[in-house]
Amino acid sequence: MMRVGIGYDCHPLIPGRKLVLGGVAIPFDKGLSGYSDADVAVHAIIDALCGAADLGDIGTHFPSGDPRYKDISSLILLGKIGELVYKKGFTIANIDVTIVAQSPRLSPFFAEMKKQISRSLNIKPSQVAVKATTTDGVGSIGRGEGIAAQSVALVQEKS
């Protein structure tokens, strides 16, 4: 049996914080506000995997306010979710994530994002698709107030 899950996350941009997307530090004058490193791409993947494997959501596993997760790398959280997916009897077939940001330009970082995400999940980089889009200036993301991401994950029962 195969199962599909979807995930979404969005955080506001703030000055004085490092921007991390897909597990990669991106040179930019702002970063994402959040309790962990606020990596919206990885958070969306976590929720997609949780949905596919019927594991609840990111907040169920890593609640905001829990000191264990303050400023933690989202890649560590992703690895923990990957282990839960495997323990539940599934393997990860593929991950697809789209980052929605007016700026900065993200395509130069896609290969490293794929590498970091796949390493955390113990899958091949070819099983991870990373892409980005803008809102062409529309809405809060278009005004540069935040960054969002959406993801789809496909898992299958171990044979």
What does this structure look like?
The protein has a single domain (2-157), classed as 2-C-methyl-D-erythritol 2,4-cyclodiphosphate synthase (60s Ribosomal Protein L30, Chain: A), CATH 3.30.1330. The chain is built from 5 helices and 7 strands. It has helices at residues 40-52, 58-61, 74-87, 110-121, 139-142; strands spanning 2-15, 19-21, 24-26, 30-32, 90-100, 128-133, 146-157. The chain has a 5-stranded mixed β-sheet. It has a two-stranded antiparallel ribbon with strand order 2-3. Helix 4 (110-121) links the parallel strand 5 and strand 6 (128-133). The longest helix is centred in the middle third of the chain and has 14 residues, at 74-87. It is globular. The relative contact order is 0.26. The model has no long low-confidence stretch (mean pLDDT 97).
Number of strands: 7
The CATH architecture assignment turns out to be 2-Layer Sandwich
**CATH class type:** Alpha Beta
Side-by-side strand order of the widest sheet: 4-1-7-5-6
What is the CA-based Rg, rounded? 15 Å
Distance between the termini: 10 Å
Largest sheet data: 5 strands, mixed
Strand percentage lies at 25-35%
